[in-house]
Design brief:
heterodimer, A: mainly alpha, MetI-like fold, flat, B: mainly alpha, 8 helices, 82% helix
Chain lengths: 228, 220
């Protein structure tokens, strides 16, 4: 069976799997961005407890593997009284993992804003919160967007692991089809192709566009587009 | 559910053995990635435009598709072509290939950071291309690449749990087995998490120190 024949036979299942992968991606990305911002800001906080909390979170999630985190959230948390369905556990684990990596990017981005910007905001009498929101964060965002592009690809790849707790994403559907048809080359080839298309023609171009858009938004020329 | 220390001590030896397997898997995968990564990096500098393009796209492809899928691909597709691969061998091929794509980018950065004058000087000394790379360019491109190389060593270690899906007896695979035998998941999964932390955090620190040491050593 050629790849084309294969896809024309099994496209409904591949499509539904891709749909779940995309939904998991968006939910995990939203969660990851929120956590990154929270943990990144907390790591810069003057308060020692907040900082300690952020550092612990970041080190735990960057120091262990996503599979371990996923299994822990899905299999161990219920034993401690917190039951989460597999779909939620999936994007929760992926989002929390990416959030820990993103927090470092947020921290780096904020620290990359020149000292003068902080001082100028202080001089015109802005409150710390307003200064962060109106002056520092927008510039930090532009500075940190390029590595976020890579992180989003890692996120997309990370969602494939939710298949391990039986979320019916693209990876899971591929395994199921493989188990019932033994058309391994076709099914895994098709899945590889779909992930590649998602990454190369959706995630990366969107992040590139966002880089340019945000740069223009704060009145900066878009930077040269480097290779990743 | 209560944490049971007795059970913890009972399963610890098995997890220690599995940790050994995990480290061997990470080490072997990394060894493949280091060599193959260099090949991919150098191939992207080849004079042939076609070759450069193909290798570039290949690296992109590997980097933007999930490792777990690549592991399945190698494990299930090779037999269709009459090649029987054990879980260990296919796992090492997949993980080595995946990380070679990342390492090739690290090498590429390192090679590009070598000053132009070094190339010219090597040419002036009448060195062959091979001599140039082996004696002048590669030694100088290693120090700036060390940080990235170290990060991916820790990265490969953290990705070894994916090998459990094809039956490599590393940490997660062993924890799964223990959990299924005893119907207790709290201790095995938590211990695996702690083992990962206990190895990857000091490793990251050590790599940072090593990088500083090498930088100092090379600058003379």
């Amino acid at each position: 069976m050629t790849l084309f024949e294969f896809i024309s036979t099994y496209w409904p299942r591949l499509l539904s799997g891709t749909g779940i992968t995309v939904i998991q991606f968006f939910l995990a990305a939203a969660l990851g961005v929120v956590i990154s911002l929270g943990a990144g800001l907390m790591k810069l906080a003057p308060n020692r407890i907040l900082r300690g909390f952020a550092i612990t979170y970041i080190e735990i999630f960057r120091g262990t593997s996503l599979v371990v985190q996923l299994y822990w959230i899905f299999f161990v948390l219920p034993l401690l009284g917190v039951t989460i369905d597999k779909f939620t556990a999936g994007y929760l684990a992926v989002g929390m993992n990416i959030g820990a990596y993103g927090a470092e990017l947020v921290r780096g981005g904020i620290l990359s804003v020149p000292r003068g910007q902080w001082e100028a905001a202080l001089a015109i009498g802005m409150s710390p919160a307003k200064r962060m929101r109106r002056i520092i964060l927008p510039q930090a965002l532009v500075n940190m967007l390029p590595p976020w592009g890579n992180l989003m690809i890692e996120l997309l790849k990370g969602t494939a692991l939710v298949s391990l707790i039986s979320v019916a994403d693209l990876m899971f559907e591929s395994r199921q089809i493989n188990a019932s048809t033994y058309l391994s080359a076709q099914v895994f080839g098709a899945a590889l192709l779909i992930y590649y298309i998602l990454a190369r023609f959706f995630v990366t171009p969107f992040m590139r566009w966002l880089e340019g858009f945000m740069a223009r938004k704060i009145g900066r020329e878009a930077r040269g587009v480097g290779a990743n | 559910m209560e944490w049971k220390w007795e059970f913890t001590w009972e399963i610890l030896p098995r997890l220690v053995v599995a940790t050994g397997n995990t480290l061997v898997a990470a080490g072997a995968g990394y060894a493949i990635a280091i060599v193959l990564g260099l090949v991919l990096a150098l191939a992207q500098r080849a004079p042939s435009r076609v070759l450069t393009f193909i290798v570039r796209e290949f690296v992109e492809f590997i980097r933007s598709t999930p490792l777990i899928l690549q592991i399945f691909f190698v494990f299930y597709v090779a037999p269709q072509f009459g090649i029987r691969l054990s879980p260990w061998v296919s796992g090492m091929i997949a993980i080595g290939l995946h990380y070679s794509a990342y390492l090739s980018e690290v090498y590429r950065g390192g090679i590009e950071s070598v000053a132009k004058g070094q190339w010219e000087a090597a040419t002036a000394l009448n060195m062959t291309a091979l001599q140039k790379y082996r004696r002048i360019i590669i030694p100088q491109s290693i120090p700036p690449a060390l940080a990235g190389m170290g990060n991916y060593l820790v990265g490969i270690f953290k990705d070894t749990p994916m090998l459990s899906v094809i039956g490599v007896a590393e940490l997660i695979h062993t924890a799964n087995a223990i959990g299924a035998e005893h119907y207790r998941f709290l201790e095995p999964y938590t211990l695996v998490g702690i083992i990962f932390l206990a190895i990857s955090l000091p490793a990251a620190g050590f790599i940072r120190l090593f990088e500083i040491y090498v930088r100092r050593k090379i600058r003379l």
